[in-house]
Amino acid sequence: MFEQQFVVFKEVADTKNITLAAKRLHMSQPSISLQIQNMENIYGTRFFNRTNKGVTLTKAGEVFYGHVNNILNILSVAQQQISLLTEDQRALIYIGATLTIGEYILPNLLAYLYKVRPDVDFKVKIANTETISQDVLEKRIHIGLIEGPVPRSKELVVEKFWQDELVVVVPTFHPWANRKSVTLAELTKEKLILREEGSGTRKVTEMALKERGIDLSQLNITMELGSTQAIKQVVAAGIGVTIISSLTVKPECENGMLKALKIQDSPVYRHLSILSLEHVNRTKEENFFINILHNTELIEDIVAGRCEEDQKLISGGYN
Question: How far, in Å, are 13, 26, 231, 297 from residue 69 at the CA level?
Fold first, then answer.
């Protein structure tokens, strides 16, 4: 009971917002408020200053926050150590991934791993970069796989494992469909379909265009969608063109539904990264998983569906 209250307290303190904390913890807002109130009654003090803009820690709350962090870390370590002592305990790896990685890399990768390592189970969470990073920091997941800009934190270890190219995608009946590349200047004259503001792909696109001297206001953005799949369907219908990950359109390009074109002026790449916690010892299974991610040739074969069960594994998988 107390552990749950501590988790609630920490989430409210970190987000500075009871509504957001309730959403992240999959609890109701009244339940969050009641648990905070109960803790304040138990300790006889107020932990939060409440305003219309959110909540902030009082001095007592700041002191309590430090102790709660220590307690939750101790409980996490204890849980891991007890799990290792449990007989016949299957290895379990907690993974978090952003949408593109979760949809276009993980399915084939996990299918491959279930064949070559049937003794390991995987628990996967798909969310945005901010959520995955926070979950790694709070030890809710062990390994995070993200796309786009990497969050700044001294506690996070960041390892790049893939380089994904952003391409211009058009329907096969578009005048550009017989070409291999287009210029950014040409792109400003087309109706453009983009991901919604805040998405990893959108952030990378904005940054890349800005570096090349083009502001989004110069583009004819006619639609913003929250799904890569929805964007591909709209483009295929001839409503506009898009800038999107080459990884996400391979199936549609192979079946003749869409055509991917390189950006002629200067190709745009984004890195896919592995997040883990500093000063936390990885299990041999987690090292095995990360070593596979660093084997670019193997990952390319797995994602493309060219990897058989008996294919040679990377050397030193248990290092």
Answer: 11, 21, 42, 41
Asked if 170 and 145 sit in the same domain, the reply is no
Q: The domain spanning residue 48 has which CATH number? A: 1.10.10.10
What is the 8-class DSSP label of residue 2? H
- pTM beyond 0.70: no
In angstroms, the first-to-last Cα distance of the chain is: 39
Partners of 120 in the beta sheet?
91
Contact 145, 274 (CB under 8 A): yes
**80 and 228, same structural domain?**
no
Q: In this structure, is residue 262 part of a structural domain? A: yes
Question: What's the rounded mean pLDDT across residues 163-168?
Answer: 89
Report the alpha-carbon distance of residue 242 to residue 178 in Å, rounded. Answer: 17
Evaluate whether residue 315 is within a structural domain: no
Of the candidates 139, 179, 159, which has an alpha carbon nearest to the alpha carbon of residue 261?
Answer: 179
**DSSP codes, 78-93:** HHHHHHHHSTTPPEEE
Least confident range from 94-98, 280-284, 313-317: namely: 313-317
Count of domains in the chain? Answer: 3
Could you list the residue range(s) of the whole structural domain that residue 97 is in?
91-162+271-303
Please give the biggest Cα pair distance in the chain. Answer: 73
Residues 172 and 262 in one domain: yes
Q: Are residues 81 and 123 in the same domain?
A: no
Residues 167-194: tens digit of each pLDDT: 999 999 999 999 999 988 898 889 999 9
Give the count of alpha carbons within 13 A of 171, CB side only: 15
Tokens of 231: 């964007």
